[in-house]
Design goal:
Number of domains: 1
Radius of gyration: 14 Å
Structural class: alpha+beta
Largest sheet: 5 strands, mixed
Mean pLDDT: 93
Distance between the termini: 10 Å
Number of strands: 5
CATH architecture: 2-Layer Sandwich
C-alpha cells in the first residue's frame, strides 16, 4: 500500500493537496506570509513542482505552483524525495528531520526555512488522509 499508480495520479493528488493548503483559512495565509518559495523534485516520476506565495493573494488563493522549472521565482529551499516519501509525509507518517537524516529527503538551500514551515503545514495531514481514504484508498499508509 502507499504507491501511486502513475505520475499523472501523483500530480493530481499533489495539486489537490497544494490547493488544500492554499485555500485553508489558517494555513494558506501563514504560508503566503512565510514567503518561502520551494522546489520539490520527485525523481521516481521525473516531476518537479515549484511553489511560491501568490502575489496579491486572497483568502482562497495563497499559493501558486508550476510543474516546471520555468518559473518567475527562485526557490529558497529545495527538497528531493520519492513520491512514496511525499505520500507518507502528508499522512503524518514521515518525520522530516528523520527523513533527512536517513537521506530519504535531500534538502538544499535554506533548510531552516523549510523546517519552520512544518508546524504550519501539519493541519493538512488529516485533510490529506481523508482525501486518500475517500478517493485513493491504495495510497493509505498504515505504519
Amino acid at each position: 500500500m502507499g504507491s501511486f499508480k502513475s505520475a499523472d495520479e501523483f500530480r493530481e493528488v499533489m495539486d489537490r493537496t497544494l490547493e488544500l493548503m492554499s485555500a485553508d483559512p489558517d494555513m494558506g495565509p501563514k504560508l503566503r506570509e512565510a514567503d518561502t518559495p520551494q522546489r520539490w523534485e520527485f525523481p521516481d516520476v521525473d516531476l518537479v513542482v515549484n511553489i511560491a506565495p501568490r502575489e496579491n493573494g486572497d483568502s482562497e488563493h495563497n499559493l501558486t505552483w508550476e510543474w516546471s522549472d520555468d518559473v518567475a521565482w527562485k526557490p529558497v529551499v529545495e527538497m528531493r524525495m520519492s513520491t512514496e516519501v511525499a505520500n507518507r509525509y502528508f499522512q503524518g507518517k514521515e518525520n522530516i528531520a528523520m527523513a533527512v537524516a536517513r537521506r530519504h529527503i535531500r534538502p538544499a538551500g535554506d533548510y531552516k526555512a523549510a523546517l519552520a514551515l512544518v508546524p504550519v503545514t501539519k493541519p493538512v495531514f488529516p485533510k490529506y488522509r481523508h482525501m486518500v481514504e475517500a478517493d485513493y484508498p491504495h495510497l493509505v499508509v498504515t505504519k
